């Protein structure tokens, strides 16, 4: 039974599977009139290659996103440590409280800006992966139309 928690889709392993098994031979034994098994297998191979490229693009984008998150976290911790060291608890008056509130506000605004930048990075990673798959879908539909025309011409 399919368990999404343990399922690990590895497109490169799937591509290797198709490389190691020549499905053209199996399709050729079907002897369907006008059926170009080699073209169908070639199209599916291109589909798998497009999925591999899309996954690579998404992974690269998410790796960049992770690096940005780490950098933001490290910067935030360093800023917090700097402000905590400079805070003199013996001088807690209205001016100090106001200054601390301003620092907190600035930190909050910076965090929002960072979150927006991270969201944009994630969106770009997804868009890059989508573009690869969308382009392959268009190509695949054109290939299928061409195969259909050839099949009807032979019949």
- Helix/strand order, N-terminal first: HHHH
Assign a percent range to the helix content. Answer: over 70%
Distance between the termini: 42 Å
Chain oligomer state: single chain
Major sheet attributes: none
Secondary structure category? mainly alpha
Q: Per DSSP, what share of the residues sits in E-state strands of 2 or more residues?
A: under 5%
Total helical segments: 4
What's the alpha carbon Rg, rounded to whole Å? 28 Å
Shape: rod-shaped
Task: Give the beta-strand count.
Answer: 0
How are the secondary structure elements laid out?
Blueprint: H1 11-20, H2 23-28, H3 37-86, H4 94-154
Helix pairs in contact: 1-3, 3-4
What keyword list fits this structure?
4 helices; single chain; mainly alpha; rod-shaped; 0% strand; 155 residues
Q: What does this entry look like structurally?
A:
The protein has 155 residues and is mainly alpha-helical. The chain contains four helices and no strands. It has helices at residues 11-20, 23-28, 37-86, 94-154. Helix 1 (11-20) packs antiparallel against helix 3 and helix 3 (37-86) packs antiparallel against helix 4. The model has no long low-confidence stretch (mean pLDDT 76).
Short summary of the structure?
Helices cover 82% and strands 0% of the residues. The chain is mainly alpha-helical and 155 residues long.
């Amino acid at each position: 039974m399919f368990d999404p928690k343990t399922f690990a889709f590895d497109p490169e392993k799937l591509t290797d599977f198709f490389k190691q098994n020549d499905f053209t031979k199996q399709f050729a034994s079907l002897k369907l009139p006008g059926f170009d098994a080699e073209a169908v297998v070639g199209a599916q191979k291109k589909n798998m290659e497009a999925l591999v490229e899309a996954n690579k693009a998404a992974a690269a984008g998410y790796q960049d996103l992770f690096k940005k998150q780490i950098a933001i976290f490290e910067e935030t911790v360093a800023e917090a440590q700097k402000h905590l060291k400079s805070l003199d608890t013996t001088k807690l008056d209205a001016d100090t409280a106001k200054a601390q509130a301003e620092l907190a506000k600035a930190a909050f605004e910076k965090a929002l800006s960072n979150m927006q930048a991270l969201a944009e990075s994630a969106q770009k990673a997804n868009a890059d992966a989508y573009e690869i798959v969308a382009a392959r879908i268009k190509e695949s539909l054109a290939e299928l139309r061409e195969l259909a025309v050839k099949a009807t011409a032979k019949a």
